[in-house]
Amino acid sequence: MSLQPTPSHTVHVPLGDRAYDIVIAPDAIDQAGTRLAGLFPGARFGIVTDVNVAEAQLPRLVASLDAAGLSHAEIIVPAGESTKSWMHLQDVVDGILGARLERNDILIALGGGVIGDLAGFAASIVRRGMDFVQVPTSLLAQVDSSVGGKTGINSVHGKNLVGAFHQPRLVLADLSALDTLPPRQFAAGYAEVVKYGLIGDQNFFFWLEANASEIGAGGPARAEAIARACAAKARVVVADEKETGERALLNLGHTFGHALEKATGYSDRLLHGEGVAIGMVLAHKFSARLGLAPSQDTGRIEAHLKIAGLPTTLADIPGELPPTPVLMDAIAQDKKVSRGALTFILTRGIGGAFIEKNVDPTAVSGFLEDMR
Amino acid sequence: MSLQPTPSHTVHVPLGDRAYDIVIAPDAIDQAGTRLAGLFPGARFGIVTDVNVAEAQLPRLVASLDAAGLSHAEIIVPAGESTKSWMHLQDVVDGILGARLERNDILIALGGGVIGDLAGFAASIVRRGMDFVQVPTSLLAQVDSSVGGKTGINSVHGKNLVGAFHQPRLVLADLSALDTLPPRQFAAGYAEVVKYGLIGDQNFFFWLEANASEIGAGGPARAEAIARACAAKARVVVADEKETGERALLNLGHTFGHALEKATGYSDRLLHGEGVAIGMVLAHKFSARLGLAPSQDTGRIEAHLKIAGLPTTLADIPGELPPTPVLMDAIAQDKKVSRGALTFILTRGIGGAFIEKNVDPTAVSGFLEDMR
């Protein structure tokens, strides 16, 4: 734990009439009541959270809303990726309607990426859209899923195949919530922080390398890393909100990662961020094999991810993986496909990611086979 | 059946980058292949329809797509309002993903309002949004639900409480499909045609009165009635796409109507358009009771709806209705509520509908009790 005082950061996401702030602060949850009362006078609130976060953080949020005199209802769902399902979507929607929340009321997503994706999607479809606020409590949610408006659930056909673009009205990233996060969860979120460096900002990656232990310890460096990650994401989202172009860069490592998550049943065998970590290494190795990127970059990336406690190879995944053709099938069904051609985020090196729409499936298949 | 040749009409909906045409023609389904091939080069198509429409119209659509060399898959669901459910939404979404339709492919909603609402909602959430085309085969769908982008399903808490705004890319309204429609279904759709006159165009209502039998017979008068209804709806939708204001006028008769539909279990006891017909009469009677509208207008409206074969009073609904407090509960849960106050579409007479946001629930309750 750092002994320096941790400053607050605010990152603005300038999306016109859908613009919003990301507030990154040690006490963001405690500020919630005051901020929400100011932004949404007269509104009632529905809080969606999971059983674990309900225990760890809900009392703080409720105390903050109560102190501000805000009316609220709670909808509590099980924890884990399997909650991003049709069944729990319907539970949350029924909970909102049962609590008589109306179009001008506000849904609050209190939790990690699963809760943000699920509650945000529910908010987008109740009465054809109600506003919502993200209160991300995991590092992954703070730097990635709570920002940018992608919401959704998983399908038997793959991850995040059902959903909506629905921007939050405010993001409150509470740094103190990260102190209670299991180390494995923190590491998984950190993979997404590293991703922003790998995509388009090598100086950020070098800064992360140099500040790894300070970031791990919490305090100002961690706050800065999160704010820089959010700002990077915000820039991409503003340039391409609906992912018709460059937003796809944010999927670096995700096509391989999603296939591996599907192969492991979206289970604790492989967290999303862990899949992304392995996927980013694979994307760099594949780019190196195609002669696009220097292979020494791959080693440097692997080393930094390992220091952060992340898996980097297929062999790091516990248990058996399905045969390569099954992985290829998951890759083809991933939503980053267009008219049958495989689209991948490849790279020319650290900070040099680009979208390649004509990747040869045979080359990917052969590469994956060699990586086993 | 009219002996005059029936002209085609095209109504443009100028919604910027979401603009589209409504083509009203006796052979709109037969034109589908050519039109779709021109608009969506390289796309594959998924056709969502119900078992009844599959028998009556699917062969024509398939023949048209085949003749244009377009690849297509079919997703067939049961007929009826109960198909607008979570279960069938998931069926349609899984069908789309199972058919490997991608972001740039096109979903076609072939059928009545249920199919358009269900398929349109599915299109809006698959991979966070794919394009779709409406091929409405009922009068209700042609003049109302296929135009304007409202999609959704029903909830145990009420009708259309879950959904999205998702504009179609094209609407193909096939007039010949109406010739096979059961008279009761045709009449139910006609209630929505009358609605446009009642909302803001008394001359259209007078024209409908004068041409009732020609419209019933089919041919040019029917085509004109549909085109004028679509144009009226398009004007309102363009002025207020997301229903933050005047689009709510389209709900004339719908708050009462939805409550009655809920009270009758969304069943064949009361079709949507029948509920709207009774609801419109109730809205006019209630407005007259409040001294807002001349009571002779109510009689004139009732007479015209009766001629069209529509119910106009609560007593016209077969079976028992639940007690008034249960109806009031459904009215309060209807989505046209704002911070607890009841919002109704009231009227100053034929063509003079307006939005009233502060309707006294006690007055509504007493009125409903008197109407039983």
Automatic annotation (TrEMBL), chains A, B:
Entry keywords, A to Z: Amino-acid biosynthesis, Aromatic amino acid biosynthesis, Cobalt, Cytoplasm, Lyase, Metal-binding, NAD, Nucleotide-binding, Zinc
SUPFAM superfamilies assigned to the protein according to its UniProt record, in alphabetical order: Dehydroquinate synthase-like
UniProt GO molecular function: 3-dehydroquinate synthase activity; metal ion binding; nucleotide binding
Catalytic activity: 7-phospho-2-dehydro-3-deoxy-D-arabino-heptonate = 3-dehydroquinate + phosphate
E.C. numbers: 4.2.3.4
Residues annotated as domain 3-dehydroquinate synthase N-terminal: 75-187
Chain ranges of the 3-dehydroquinate synthase C-terminal domain: 189-337
Binding site for Zn(2+): E192, H254, H272
Cofactor comment: Binds 1 divalent metal cation per subunit. Can use either Co(2+) or Zn(2+).
InterPro entries: Dehydroquinate_synthase (IPR050071), DHQ_synth_AroB (IPR016037), DHQ_synth_fam (IPR030963), DHQS/DOIS_N (IPR030960), DHQS_C (IPR056179)
Record-linked Pfam families: DHQ_synthase (PF01761), DHQS_C (PF24621)
GO cellular component terms attached to this protein's record: cytoplasm
Example GO BP: amino acid biosynthetic process
Top EC class of this enzyme: lyase
Cofactor(s) recorded in Swiss-Prot or TrEMBL: NAD(+); Co(2+); Zn(2+)
Source superkingdom: Bacteria
Localisation per UniProt entry: Cytoplasm
Pathway assigned to this chain's UniProt record: Metabolic intermediate biosynthesis; chorismate biosynthesis; chorismate from D-erythrose 4-phosphate and phosphoenolpyruvate: step 2/7
Protein family (similarity comment): Belongs to the sugar phosphate cyclases superfamily. Dehydroquinate synthase family.
Function, in words: Catalyzes the conversion of 3-deoxy-D-arabino-heptulosonate 7-phosphate (DAHP) to dehydroquinate (DHQ).
Stated name of the protein: 3-dehydroquinate synthase
Upper classification of the organism: Bacteria, Pseudomonadati, Pseudomonadota, Alphaproteobacteria, Hyphomicrobiales
